[in-house]
């Protein structure tokens, strides 16, 4: 998952899970020993193939997976390795179903973010099992998911399972950055290979769907919408001069005013199907004030005081508003010279239905100061006067054919755990599939402690039990989705 | 370094000593004038070459080398006949060496020390219209970082010393020239280092620092020739706010950047008090006699005890009068955040203050804390070597310097020759220069240079720094003539 993490709903449930649940989860984790052994082997193989953009090779990982599918009896025609450059090839595998429904597409990225040996306690490109954890780059984001999805397909094939729809698995390149996003490339060049009714992205939030607190799962957040990520550069220039002669016009003061104006501004309150679902399910029938506020903001018109109270929690504010925050400042070139330039980076997370240019215009309106320019900073660092005008992708509808099997698989694995629709505040490959009109859902049975999310960081890890539970969950879930 | 000259032309009327030299000069024989003109032309060409060479040696603290410039000047001085005994290049580190050269005199008087710094403020190619480290002559100006501050005066001093040496001139006192490092900041202020480690090399009766232009132009006309005899104290403070950070997708209501910018807002709004000292009192007393109408009345009114608050407000509305009568603090740098998509864990600003005599750096540190009014904003002092200290030092103020006749007389004479009728006035400069170091050890120190600049086009430390070609050559002629007259008695 791109651009690190959001802290999600963790710890905010008012109906805290019963103490017995953790034990139930652990019990369910044993699952099928052979399937777990297979998942472990694939996991290890993937972790130990370096798939970073700098020196790694996604093609090597894609081909290693292809060999496993061919060995398991998948016909060569259903195992395709293709991509635009030598190091950035993607794997597409199809498990044929009865054809009763249109196919489902599973996506997972094979590439990982950079990891330097000297930053880590262990070699990031070795799968190390230690103290109940798997360590290695991609253990969470998201070679665990890749291994689990591959294992699930191999297991179904071995069992001769005939799903009600084709199951297509695409393991792809370039999600974390680099030249060649595999999902985008497949949509543009081989759409027929991945055409589907809907998409299941194992990236979830950042390779997981469950946050735990002291081992207790809080909620199963399946993502069905994404905010759009955008950086803007605010710039003030000035003729500068010697600091012994300060003038009223000063680039730093003018920029400080602009940053404060952005800080004071709140974007309009706005809910969509997914965030309504989020607040509805989070509130449930709870009798505490927060639950009451959540119900109050769902009224028409919404209760303004309740919005105000909930918005004090950043994790709720991000679900009901576009947010913009200044993340960087730079200004001046010498202690004893008046600044000739002062700049701020403002990072925005934009609600579905609004474009990056809409937000740039809104910032200009809020700043109301011709001395401050607002430019758009693209992902590759390029700066342009105008931002893209395309609207962010719409939330994916809460399809009953997906929700019912998800709830049954979740409750079979973690009894009583809430299933909550979720809007990601940062981007995954789901932006490409949603933009192509394919409803997309982030579902991963991996549970991570809320204080231990190490995706993109050093000593990335997941609990061994979490991996095996996630493997068992996914098999249950996918079987249920494709059973009827 | 730079100053805030008053823009009031009325300052011209300040009483200056009667000029004796003008007529003598005009009566000089035509032949002598022609020979002098040829020598001046040769000196101008030399000064031009030296300035070009100096500008094109990057002497910034970040990537430049002052030593390279010092060595280049040493090479020229050796070629002009200065011997190893009278020439030293030395300093505490590889990139920060200083040049000290001595033109031997008869010893009738104690030496005079000429000061110039070789380092320049940072300049980024992308901010400038031309390469700041390429010397460019265009439309009557020399462009390049340091043309004004202060490689122009450095080149003039070196050219003048070479000319006097080649002429076999024997002054009545040794003339020592020190070209030094880190006046603009950095680890190793050359003047301080020489005072601490090689005082014998620069020991002098008085100090003439060329780090300021003296001739203020308004609409192309010179108004007066200023001699800085008192300085504000220079101080940098670091403002720092830390916060836990986190992912930017869920911004909290507060973060380090907002806390810092709120503090800066308060600083921008703070009214520093109006203050006078002995020099500025004298200044307004004289100006009030020259000015007329409401302005003159206001100047008198601020001299009352207590000063008339409305007159103070009106006078302070003029930026130049404001700088003269207020301590100033202004943010000059900002730095915050480590990634576009992460909440900032740290936000910092540098606030640069110019402190009126009578206040210590520690006092201003306390003042900043109370103005910022937020315990979350740490206020620390940045020493000249870049170290950040919890406590600012108690700095002795730059005392008003006595107006020595052995300086003022020749200065007034030669100024009057080069710019007929131009008056010399003592001045409080809001800038800070290396004169603070030499004044602190008790050597009377004065800052002036015969360069003419329009204050509205003063680009020291800024982009596209420049110096008028005509101004440079006139300054070169002035300094040579002044030095000869001054050192001859």
Describe what this molecule looks like in 3D.
The complex is a heterodimer of chains A (484) and B (489). Chain A has 484 residues and is of the alpha/beta class. Chain A has 2 domains: 296 residues, Aminopeptidase; 157 residues, Alpha-Beta Plaits (2-Layer Sandwich). Chain A has 15 helices and 20 strands. In chain A, the strands form 5 sheets. In chain A, strands 1-2-6-3-7-18 form a 6-stranded mixed β-sheet, with helices on both faces. In chain A, strands 12-14-10-15-16 form a 5-stranded antiparallel β-sheet, with helices on one face. A 4-stranded mixed β-sheet of chain A has the order 17-9-8-19. In chain A, α2 crosses α4 and α13 runs antiparallel to α15. Chain A is globular, with a radius of gyration of 24 Å. The N terminus of chain A is likely disordered. Chain B has 3 domains: 313 residues, Aminopeptidase (3-Layer(aba) Sandwich), CATH 3.40.630; 111 residues, Alpha-Beta Plaits; 49 residues, no CATH class. In chain B, 37% of the residues lie in helices and 22% in strands. Chain B contains 15 helices and 20 strands. The N terminus of chain B is likely disordered. The chains are: A alpha/beta (484), B alpha/beta (489). The interface between A and B is large, with 59 and 65 residues.
Give keywords.
heterodimer, A: 484 residues, alpha/beta, Aminopeptidase, Alpha-Beta Plaits, 5-stranded antiparallel β-sheet, 15 helices, disordered N terminus, B: 489 residues, 3 domains, 6-stranded mixed β-sheet, 20 strands
Helix % of chain B is: 25-40%
Quickly name the level 1 CATH class of the largest domain in chain B. Answer: Alpha Beta
> Percent helix among the residues of chain A?
25-40%
Low-confidence stretches of chain B: 2-29
CATH homologous superfamily (4th level) name of the largest domain in chain B: Zn peptidases
Radius of gyration from the alpha-carbon trace of chain A, in angstroms: 24 Å
Number of helices of chain A: 15
| Strand proportion of chain B | 15-25%
Count of the domains of chain B: 3
């Amino acid at each position: 998952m791109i651009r690190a993490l959001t802290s999600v709903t963790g710890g905010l449930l008012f109906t805290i899970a019963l103490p017995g649940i953790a034990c139930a989860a652990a019990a369910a984790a044993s699952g099928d020993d052979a399937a777990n052994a297979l998942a472990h082997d694939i996991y290890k193989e993937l972790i130990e193939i370096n798939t970073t953009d700098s020196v790694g090779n996604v093609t090597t990982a894609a081909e290693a997976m292809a060999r496993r599918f061919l060995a398991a009896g998948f016909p060569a025609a259903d195992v395709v390795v293709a991509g635009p450059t030598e190091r950035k090839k993607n794997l597409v595998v199809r498990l044929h179903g009865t054809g009763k429904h249109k196919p489902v597409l599973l996506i997972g990225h094979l590439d990982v973010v950079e990891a330097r040996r000297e930053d880590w306690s262990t070699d990031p490109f070795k799968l190390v099992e230690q103290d109940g954890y798997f360590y290695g780059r991609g253990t969470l984001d998201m070679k665990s998911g890749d291994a689990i999805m591959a294992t699930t397909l191999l297991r179904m094939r071995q069992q001769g399972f005939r799903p009600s729809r084709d199951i297509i698995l695409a393991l792809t390149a370039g999600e974390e950055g680099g030249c060649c996003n595999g999902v985008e490339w497949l949509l543009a060049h081989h759409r027929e290979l991945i055409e589907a009714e809907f998409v299941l992205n194992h990236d979830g939030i950042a390779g997981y769907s469950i946050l735990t607190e002291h081992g207790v799962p809080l909620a199963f957040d399946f993502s069905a919408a994404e905010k759009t990520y955008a950086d803007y550069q605010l710039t003030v220039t000035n003729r500068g001069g010697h600091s012994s002669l300060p003038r009223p016009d000063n680039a730093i003061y003018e920029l400080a005013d602009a940053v404060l104006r952005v800080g004071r501004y709140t974007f309009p309150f706005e809910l969509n199907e997914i965030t309504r679902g989020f607040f509805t399910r989070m509130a449930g029938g709870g009798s505490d004030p927060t639950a009451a506020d959540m119900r109050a903001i769902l009224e028409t018109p919404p209760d303004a005081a309740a919005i105000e109270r909930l918005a004090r929690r950043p994790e709720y504010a991000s679900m009901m508003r576009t947010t913009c925050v200044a993340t960087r400042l730079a200004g001046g070139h010498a202690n004893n010279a008046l600044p000739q330039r002062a700049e701020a980076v403002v990072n925005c997370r934009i609600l579905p239905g609004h474009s990056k240019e809409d937000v740039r215009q809104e910032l200009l309106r809020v700043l109301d100061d011709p001395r401050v320019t607002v430019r758009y900073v693209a992902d590759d660092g390029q700066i342009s006067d105008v931002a893209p005008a395309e609207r962010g992708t719409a939330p994916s509808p809460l399809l009953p054919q997906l929700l019912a099997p998800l709830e049954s698989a979740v409750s079979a694995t973690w009894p009583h755990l809430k299933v909550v629709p979720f809007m990601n505040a940062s981007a995954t490959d789901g932006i490409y599939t949603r933009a192509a009109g394919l409803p997309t859902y982030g579902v991963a049975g991996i549970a991570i402690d809320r204080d231990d999310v190490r995706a993109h960081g050093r000593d990335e890890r997941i609990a061994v039990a979490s991996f095996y539970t996630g493997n068992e969950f996914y098999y249950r879930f996918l079987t249920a989705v494709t059973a009827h | 370094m730079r100053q805030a000259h008053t823009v009031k032309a009325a300052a011209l009327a300040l009483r200056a000593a009667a000029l004796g030299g003008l007529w003598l000069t005009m009566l000089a024989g035509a032949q002598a004038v022609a020979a002098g003109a040829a020598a001046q032309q040769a000196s101008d060409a030399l000064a031009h070459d030296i300035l070009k060479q100096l500008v094109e040696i990057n002497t910034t603290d970040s990537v430049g080398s002052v030593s390279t410039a010092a060595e280049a000047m040493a090479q020229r001085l050796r070629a002009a006949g200065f011997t190893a005994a009278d020439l030293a290049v030395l300093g505490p580190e590889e990139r920060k060496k200083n040049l000290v050269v001595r033109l031997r005199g008869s010893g009738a008087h104690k030496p005079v020390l000429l000061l110039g710094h070789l380092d320049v403020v940072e300049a980024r190619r992308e901010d400038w219209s031309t390469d700041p480290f390429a010397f460019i002559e265009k439309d009557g100006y020399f462009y390049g970082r340091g043309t004004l501050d202060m490689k122009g005066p450095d080149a003039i001093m070196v050219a003048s010393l070479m000319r006097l040496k080649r002429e076999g001139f024997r002054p009545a006192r040794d003339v020592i020239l020190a070209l030094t490092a880190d006046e603009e900041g950095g680890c190793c202020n050359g003047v301080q280092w020489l005072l601490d480690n090689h005082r014998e090399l620069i020991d002098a009766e008085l100090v003439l620092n060329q780090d300021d232009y003296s001739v203020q132009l308004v609409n192309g006309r010179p108004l007066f020739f200023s001699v800085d005899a008192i300085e504000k104290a220079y101080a940098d403070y670091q403002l720092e706010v830390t916060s836990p950070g986190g992912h930017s997708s869920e911004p909290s209501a507060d973060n380090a950047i907002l806390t810092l910018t709120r503090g800066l807002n308060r600083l921008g709004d703070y009214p520093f008090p109006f203050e006078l000292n002995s020099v500025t009192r004298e200044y307004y007393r004289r100006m009030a006699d020259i000015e007329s109408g409401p302005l003159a009345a206001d100047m008198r009114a601020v001299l009352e005890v207590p000063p008339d608050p409305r007159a103070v407000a009106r006078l302070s509305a003029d930026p130049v009068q404001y700088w003269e009568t207020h301590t100033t603090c202004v943010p000059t740098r900002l730095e915050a955040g480590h990634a576009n998509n992460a909440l900032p864990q740290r936000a910092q600003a540098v606030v640069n203050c110019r402190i009126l005599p009578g206040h210590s750096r520690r006092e201003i540190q306390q003042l900043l804390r109370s103005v910022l009014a937020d315990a979350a904003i740490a206020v620390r002092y940045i020493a000249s070597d870049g170290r950040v200290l919890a406590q600012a030092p108690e700095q002795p103020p730059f005392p008003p310097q006595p107006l020595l006749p052995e300086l003022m007389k020749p200065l007034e004479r030669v100024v009057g020759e080069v710019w007929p009728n131009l008056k010399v006035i003592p001045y409080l400069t809001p800038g800070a220069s290396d004169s603070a170091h030499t004044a602190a050890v008790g050597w009377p120190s004065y800052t002036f240079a015969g360069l003419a600049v329009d204050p509205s086009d003063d680009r020291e430390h800024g982009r596209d720094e420049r110096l008028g070609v005509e101004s440079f050559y006139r300054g070169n002629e002035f300094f040579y003539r002044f030095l000869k007259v001054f050192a001859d008695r």
